[in-house]
């Protein structure tokens, strides 16, 4: 879990989108279909903070700011990369049906793109809509599509497979279940409402029809926007602030680190990115036996506020040379935050945008819980790989983690109006 910070949690006020736009092609939106949604839950004050819960359904209450948040499907980059963390998410990989080839893949991506664009606009999915999300607005839904290494052989496009998509090396911390790893196609779904996220998952799975079958699927969550008094770095299931040093779009080299340049190779990946996906089990029973001081020593940061053990606040630069009264390094030599610093890894950087997960309990009562780690970079050989190799050599946190599934996916640039994701590859 490299310590490069997550996008901050958004407040509902920060997510508010303009009133629902005209519906293209005369399609009915979920809101138009059902009228103004009656709110049975959160009551929002003028500042957008939760002030109480309604005891019974209210009458003629408009959609909250949380529901009306809207991300754009069409654009230079695909959604779900630089957007803020979302409360609910699904990751799902598909394998193409044998013999379908390039033509079937193109038809599937065309269907998926059309459905994703409608759902992200708050409209019904189309024919056979299940009605699961009919009471909700877009809820900042994002849908992101990527191609795995095996996709190119299945479609006869091996010559277009990027070198950056070569399989990740083996790491000593890997305990990978191959059945829950890789895949021809990858879909990332996120929303600030769990039903909206599930609705999108179900719609896309139905759209796949006989063209592709689900290989694996994982469900995740984050803190809901507005749950804290102010926007702040999210916490993981270990209780630590997780993500204090994420690259920020305001930084001059952000695009260079995260996105493939317009002049990059192959040409169809221009403005795209590469996603590394890892299911990382947290051994919480062992972790929670540690004292607070021991936990902080493993991470290298204070649990309460995320500040480095060398002092200051969460955003204060870590002093790697500072010692304590006993002459020991304030930030231990094998602390996770020290090892993962970009300046300790040749400048390697990645944009982390994960979800937490909890999938029940083992027979001995241990929670099957942890992090659905997702990181974005222009080249995984310069981003994820060098950092993970260094973690393999002596990260104090590795003792409490188990990497159980893995995938690497090429995520092409965004689709323009009238196009579908991957069109430059499949019709080039």
Automatic annotation (TrEMBL):
Catalytic activity: heme b + 2 H(+) = protoporphyrin IX + Fe(2+)
Recorded superkingdom: Bacteria
Broad enzyme group: oxidoreductase
Subcellular location: Cell envelope
InterPro entries: Dimeric_a/b-barrel (IPR011008), Dyp_perox_C (IPR048328), Dyp_perox_N (IPR048327), Dyp_peroxidase (IPR006314), EfeB/EfeN (IPR006313), TAT_signal (IPR006311)
SUPFAM superfamilies (UniProt xref): Dimeric alpha+beta barrel
Keywords: Heme, Iron, Lyase, Metal-binding, Oxidoreductase, Peroxidase, Signal
Entry EC number(s): 1.11.1.-
Biological function: Involved in the recovery of exogenous heme iron. Extracts iron from heme while preserving the protoporphyrin ring intact.
Protein name per Swiss-Prot or TrEMBL: Deferrochelatase
Native source species: Streptomyces doudnae
């Amino acid at each position: 879990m490299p310590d490069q910070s997550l996008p901050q949690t958004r407040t509902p006020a920060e997510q508010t989108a303009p009133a629902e736009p005209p519906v293209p092609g005369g399609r009915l939106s979920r809101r138009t279909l059902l009228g103004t949604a009656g709110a049975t839950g959160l009551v929002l004050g003028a500042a957008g903070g939760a002030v109480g819960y309604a005891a019974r359904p209210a009458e003629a209450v408009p959609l909250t700011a949380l529901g009306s948040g809207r991300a754009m499907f069409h654009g230079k980059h695909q959604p779900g990369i630089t957007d803020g963390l979302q409360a609910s998410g699904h990751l799902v990989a598909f394998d193409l049906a044998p013999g379908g080839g390039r033509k079937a893949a193109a038809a599937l991506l065309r269907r998926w793109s059309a459905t994703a664009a409608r759902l992200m606009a708050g409209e019904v999915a189309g024919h056979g809509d299940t009605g699961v999300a009919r009471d909700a607005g877009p809820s900042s839904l994002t849908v992101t599509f990527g191609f795995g290494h095996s996709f190119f052989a299945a479609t006869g496009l091996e010559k277009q497979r990027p070198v950056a998509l070569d399989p990740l090396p083996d790491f000593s911390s890997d305990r990978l279940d191959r059945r829950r790893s890789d895949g021809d196609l990858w879909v990332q779904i996120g929303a600030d409402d769990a039903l909206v996220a599930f609705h999108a998952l179900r719609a896309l799975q139905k759209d796949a029809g006989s063209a592709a079958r689900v290989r694996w699927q994982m469900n995740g969550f984050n803190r809901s926007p507005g749950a804290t008094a102010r926007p702040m770095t999210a916490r993981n299931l270990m209780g630590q602030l997780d993500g204090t040093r994420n690259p920020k779009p305001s930084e001059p080299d952000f695009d260079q680190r995260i996105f493939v340049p317009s002049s990059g190779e192959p040409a169809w990946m221009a403005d795209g990115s590469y996603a590394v996906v890892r299911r990382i089990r947290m051994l919480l029973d062992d972790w929670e036996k540690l004292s607070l001081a021991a936990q902080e020593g493993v991470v290298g940061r204070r649990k309460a506020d995320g500040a480095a053990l060398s002092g200051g606040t969460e955003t204060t630069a870590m002093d790697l040379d500072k010692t304590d009264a006993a002459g020991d390094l304030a930030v231990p030599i094998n602390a996770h935050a020290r090892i993962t610093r970009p300046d300790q890894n040749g400048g390697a950087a990645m944009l982390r945008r994960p979800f937490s997960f909890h999938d029940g309990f083992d027979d001995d009562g241990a929670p099957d819980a942890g992090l659905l780690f997702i990181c974005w970079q222009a080249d995984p050989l310069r981003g994820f790989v060098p950092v993970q190799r260094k973690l393999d050599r002596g990260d104090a946190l590795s003792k409490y983690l188990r990497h159980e599934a893995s995938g690497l996916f090429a995520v092409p640039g965004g689709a323009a109006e009238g196009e579908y994701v991957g069109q430059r590859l499949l019709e080039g």
